[in-house]
Amino acid sequence: MAKTVKTIGVLTSGGDAPGMNAAIRAVVRTGIAKGMNVKGIMRGYAGLLQEEIVDMKTTSVSEIINRGGTILYTARCVEFTTAEGQKQGADICKKHGIDGIVVIGGDGSFRGAGKLSALGVNTIGLPGTIDLDIACTDYTIGFDTAVNTAMEAIDKVRDTSTSHERCSIIEVMGRHAGYIALWCGMANGAEDILLPERYDGNEQMLINRIIENRKRGKKHHIIINAEGCGHSTSMARRIEAATGIETRATILGHMQRGGTPTCKDRVYASIMGAKAVQLLAEGKSNRVVAYKNGEYVDFDIQEALAMTKDIPEDQFEISKLLTR
Questions:
Q1: Catalytic annotation on 55?
Q2: Residues of the chain predicted below pLDDT 50
Q3: What pTM did the predictor assign?
Q4: What is the DSSP letter of 257?
């Protein structure tokens, strides 16, 4: 018999992502509409262990859908990776009458959610990360905003790079995944795109292409470098020494995490938040809400964590064609 969930909690964990507030809003309002009590857990699993738990009303999430970041704040919590910390978290949930939790975050957050589920707290995960690196889903909350933020910044760097006839290496975020770099490389018309999944470290090839393009009359050269490849500043110095062309590195950094969420991030995150509460209302636990092949679906957390993901080969091949 399915467990009846009367009180749910919601937390955001790991790196923040635009659209998290839309997901929080959807969880709170859907839960209340279904007759549940809803509690906000501040600062992720760290806040759970510190019992930073507040009651949420529909007005608690007014005027937040357009805001970046997360109103619940976020933190990483080493203590929650231990069996003792996980049991303490489950005990605190029971102490506060929390039957179910919606966890918004990435793979690490889902591992914690799986542990809570095993300890008797119904738990649903929502994929919240700008990196698009969660294998079970084609969409993650925050990616669309982050990639648009990066695209706009790169357009600006291109303007000044062209004016000074420079080579520019622009480093984008993504942790060990190259999705932001791939999308920006295609959207910004970069001459080279370096992805951790594909780059073999052949810097001489880059140097040769820069020299060849200059001979063909190109006045600038844009290289999009994924965070997982890194070393943009030292790479710029080596390229300038080898080519004689002024080369600058720009690391966009955490600006990609902030800003007003796009329409897509607001709508998709809202639907995912509502779906999470629906699963809890059905007595489900240990599930991840995903967007796969144009549909909202859910997977077992352990099944989702076991999945692997790679850059789509057709997209990578197209990007190479377009950088010629």
A1: no
A2: 1
A3: 0.95
A4: G
